[in-house]
Specification:
Largest sheet: 7 strands, mixed
Helix content: 25-40%
Radius of gyration: 22 Å
């Protein structure tokens, strides 16, 4: 099939690569405009743009899809289908109706459970044991279209959002190519979304502070759900740290936020009387460190209360 691909971040790259390496033809790529990144505010192209240009595929970066320019370009390309993977813009009705097979989205959750911008992080933050990827026929709603294909996968108890991103991007790429083959051969039957949905809102830094009155499981989920950005945070002896990794501990807790062991591990009590072991930590302006290396250079007394 002839394809117009729309995507922006790293998550979308495996899907684009899978399409390039398939029997399909990627006519063009639409992605977000280049943005300033990092402390030095260096203008940086999206990962999808880098991939497309390396393959000699034309790239378009409109500020908006609401005017007719983007629709005119797509119509002139005459694609069989538009593939959307974490593009970051809402497609207007005039674009949705252009391809003969419509517009298809690779969505990183088992719809309709999480609709919106951050389904992967919220699945981990909420302590879900299962997630997946849905290949969805797009409509004018927010992730409300019919399901064409779903692939489920378990979420490991210590798996971080960053790790799950990588796995789901690969699962999504394989499922997408499979779905396109089946769609072209008339082997797919769209299925309406059934069940309750939750809006997976964008992640921001307001979620970072750890509330040590929460249960050990909830705190562990926050740490792995916000890794590697924006990261869960805690104050130790008045200094703020990013907490990158943890595991649930077998130790018996004390006061919420109290350090009960700090020799070659950092074990902290939580609000339900259970504990977590902090595995990786990062001081402001420093690199992330294994907890043993951190404790070798930073003395934290047993009984210290984390805030």
């Amino acid at each position: 099939m002839k394809i117009v691909f729309m995507g922006t971040p790293d998550f979308a790259v495996p899907s684009l690569e899978a399409l390039i390496n398939s029997n399909n033809e990627v006519l063009a790529v639409f992605t977000q405009p280049d943005k300033k990144v990092g402390r030095k505010q260096i203008i940086t192209p999206p990962p999808v743009k880098d991939t497309a240009e390396a393959e000699g595929i034309p790239v378009y970066q409109p500020q908006s899809l609401k005017n007719s320019d983007a629709a005119d370009i797509i119509e002139s390309l005459n694609p069989d289908v538009i593939i959307v993977v974490a593009y970051g813009k809402i497609l207007p009705k005039e674009i949705l109706k252009i391809p003969r097979f419509g517009c298809i989205n690779v969505h990183a959750s088992l719809l309709p459970k999480y609709r919106g911008a951050a389904p992967i992080q919220w699945a981990v933050l909420n302590g879900d044991s299962e997630t997946g990827v849905c290949i969805m026929q797009m409509d004018e709603g927010l992730d409300t279209g019919d399901i064409l294909l779903c692939e489920k996968t378990e979420i490991g108890i210590n798996e971080t959002s960053e790790e799950l991103f990588e796995r789901l991007s690969a699962i999504g790429a394989a499922s997408l190519v499979n779905a396109l083959d089946m769609l072209e051969n008339g082997e797919l039957t769209p299925v309406k979304q059934l069940g309750e949905s939750t809006y997976a809102s964008m992640i921001d830094k307001s979620l970072c502070p750890i509330d040590w009155n929460k249960s050990a499981f909830e705190i562990h989920n926050k740490i792995r759900g916000l890794q590697s950005w924006p990261c869960a945070t805690a104050f130790i002896n008045g200094n703020e740290y990013k907490i990158h990794k943890s595991v649930l501990s077998d130790a018996t807790g004390a006061e919420a936020g109290e350090v009960i062991y700090s020799k070659n591990a950092l074990t902290v009590s939580c609000g339900d009387g259970k504990c977590i072991d902090i595995l990786e930590i990062q001081a402001q302006g420093k690199k992330r460190m294994d907890i043993k290396a951190f404790l070798a250079g930073n003395r934290i007394e047993q009984g210290t209360i984390l805030k």
